[in-house]
Amino acid sequence: MKYKYLTDNELFQRVANDDAAAYEILYNRYWEPLFLYAYKCLRLNAPAKDTVQDVFIGLWKRRGSLELSGSLRSYLFAAVRYEVLKSIAGPELTPLHDTQATMHLSAPADTDDRLHEKELKHLLAAAVERLPYKMRQVYTLSRHQHKTISEIARDLSLSEQTVKNQLSKALARLRTELREATLIPALVPGIIFFFNN
């Protein structure tokens, strides 16, 4: 049987039964569109690749226990969106674009996924609004206006180290809020396992 003619669900059932060849077909089928989507959000090549790799690694690791509530395609795009959100909120990555600006990009998915994405955007925007004033100001200048650390320091009459500290604290707070928010696992069924990574 030629695997490339199987549907996503048929391939996923084979993957769940430890079929590496079926996994490779799924990987080849979805790697490029998922990478392009991650890249549109992050505007960084290596982190976009890492995001997609992490999603596929997670898929293989949980192949026997993962239950999909919708299509595999929707699941994969939702998983990439979630990983992008984690990357943006995390201190290990400084994306070139504002979190809210990047998250407006919609993967080719169904209406429910677009609603989930809208809720995620709202959750992130609300978390940013809860930041202390100075921290929010630094974050906004960095992410909304794409200013450098030195430019922000000059504009706000702060030392560069203070700006770095404020930005680092802002990202840490956002990451904590997003991890603790019970809304995310409820809004994006099937990707709750990412919280345990």
Automatic annotation (TrEMBL):
Domain RNA polymerase sigma-70 region: 26-88
Keyword Transcription regulation set for record: yes
Single biological process term from Gene Ontology: DNA-templated transcription initiation
Keywords: Sigma factor, Transcription, Transcription regulation
Highest taxon listed in the record's lineage: Bacteria
Pfam families attached to this UniProt entry: Sigma70_r2 (PF04542), Sigma70_r4_2 (PF08281)
InterPro entries attached to this UniProt entry: RNA_pol_sigma-70-like (IPR039425), RNA_pol_sigma-70_dom (IPR014284), RNA_pol_sigma70_r2 (IPR007627), RNA_pol_sigma70_r4_t2 (IPR013249), RNA_pol_sigma_r2 (IPR013325), RNA_pol_sigma_r3/r4-like (IPR013324), WH-like_DNA-bd_sf (IPR036388)
Domain RNA polymerase sigma factor 70 region 4 type: 123-174
GO molecular function, one term: sigma factor activity
Signal peptide region: none
NCBIfam families: sigma70-ECF (TIGR02937)
PANTHER family the record matches: RNA POLYMERASE ECF-TYPE SIGMA FACTO, RNA POLYMERASE SIGMA-70 FACTOR ECF SUBFAMILY
Family: Belongs to the sigma-70 factor family. ECF subfamily.
Protein name: RNA polymerase sigma-70 factor, ECF subfamily
Organism: Chitinophaga jiangningensis
